Amino acid sequence: xxxxxxxxxxxxxxxxxxxxxxxxxxxxxxxxxxxxxxxxxxxxxxxxxxxxxxxxxxxxxxxxxxxxxxxxxxxxxxxxxxxxxxxxxxxxxxxxxxxxxxxxxxxxxxxxxxxxxxxxxxxxxxxxxxxxxxxxxxxxxxxxxxxxxxxxxxxxxxxxxxxxxxxxxxxxxxxxxxxxxxxxxxxxxxxxxxxxxxxxxxxxxxxxxxxxxxxxxxxxxxxxxxxxxxxxxxxxxxxxxxxxxxxxxxxxxxxxxxxxxxxxxxxxxxxxxxxxxxxxxxxxxxxxxxxxxxxxxxxxxxxxxxxxxxxxxxxxxxxxxxxxxxxxxxxxxxxxxxxxxxxxxxxxxxxxxxxxxxxxxxxxxxxxxxxxxxxxxxxxxxxxxxxxxxxxxxxxxxxxxxxxxxxxxxxxxxxxxxxxxxxxxxxxxxxxxxxxxxxxxxxxxxxxxxxxxxxxxxxxxxxxxxxxxxxxxxxxx
Length: 477
Ligand SMILES: [Zn+2]
Known about the structure:
Blueprint: E1 2-5, E2 10-13, E3 22-26, H1 37-55, E4 60-64, H2 71-79, H3 84-101, H4 117-129, E5 133-135, E6 141-143, E7 187-192, E8 209-211, H5 213-225, E9 229-235, H6 239-254, E10 259-265, E11 269-270, E12 273-274, H7 285-290, H8 295-303, E13 312-313, H9 315-335, H10 357-364, H11 369-386, H12 390-407, H13 413-422, H14 430-444, H15 448-460, E14 463-467, E15 472-476
Parallel strand pairs: 3-4, 3-9, 9-10, 11-13
Antiparallel strand pairs: 1-2, 5-6, 6-7, 7-8, 11-12, 14-15
Helix pairs in contact: 1-12, 2-3, 4-5, 4-6, 5-6, 8-9, 9-11, 9-13, 10-11, 14-15
Bound molecules: zinc ion.
């Protein structure tokens, strides 16, 4: 299993540091409203990584946090007259519902920032003790960027060029007063209580306040994964400053390498443009469900882009994803033995991917989901056509089951079979049958003009021809 590492700028093999468990951390949502599809493509890609690591036998352990305190959550909860915890609970529940619809696996741990205040204070204390942090005139505690040897190593950027980087979890600059800090590049570890924070503050050795946003991820990843762990992922906008700051805080506090491998997911475009409310192309999951698309089709549309390339998410793409799912079900219906579902072939480590080897190679080499999908579809097409004996098929069925699991695609064949059984038998009138036969002969003779004209004539009479592997069938339109 190989993946591009933002830190080294190379594709490298993923291996668990402890030789047993692959420990990964993903920056989760800030819960102040429904997550949009741009958030969900990042979480879906992290989910595919987690699933693929499982299939690859790397025994992943997955932590994804919930940011339940920051400027936005505090402000929005106050606007709605709710306590911060009731407000963030509501949106955490909504987030979990959306995740379930998109078939995202539940992480092993999902820690919340407000439940880890002592752990965060502990890191600030260590940084104070070691001279990496100082208390500003406003009472907030800041990280001294110049005190850390390697600031900029992840985003490959010169700290001398830094102007200001006090951003919130939405990546927007705060209007924080820059004069409180020794250097504009320094960022807040602990924010002193302000009147507008209301009741949302905690006691600390530096007075009442709340943690800066970057700190929670350092504290919670170290708590659940150890001082050095295997992989950290998030959206590309988090690379700087959020992840850079996590490295600075963690490595200065522990004296150890924080994380070995960094994965960043590129943002999507919607209908060729950056998603924004003013352009009318800003969608949360529910907006797309309301338009009649299934969550599985949305997931399928996400898979059509490699995580390091910008995906243009369009309604045409969603239509194509919907029909691709239909095709997938049809092919599986032909391949799967009677009464079986793909889930019957799941479980255990798959060592032989049979005729699906190319698809697995694409997925396990830098999570190339579009290439994996393409290879899987062409392998399935062949299998559906030739349908090998059950014994020979066993390897392929296990491979298909493992691959669809890694991609998180759930396709149920039983309902399709029921639909087909339920189809009423229609008597085809003799003149229609004769026209269809004439059209078939014209097609065989490669007389496309006549064949098209006959198809058109049938259509006008209310019948359509469906070309099948065996020849054709006629159905009412
Ligand atoms: Zn984070």
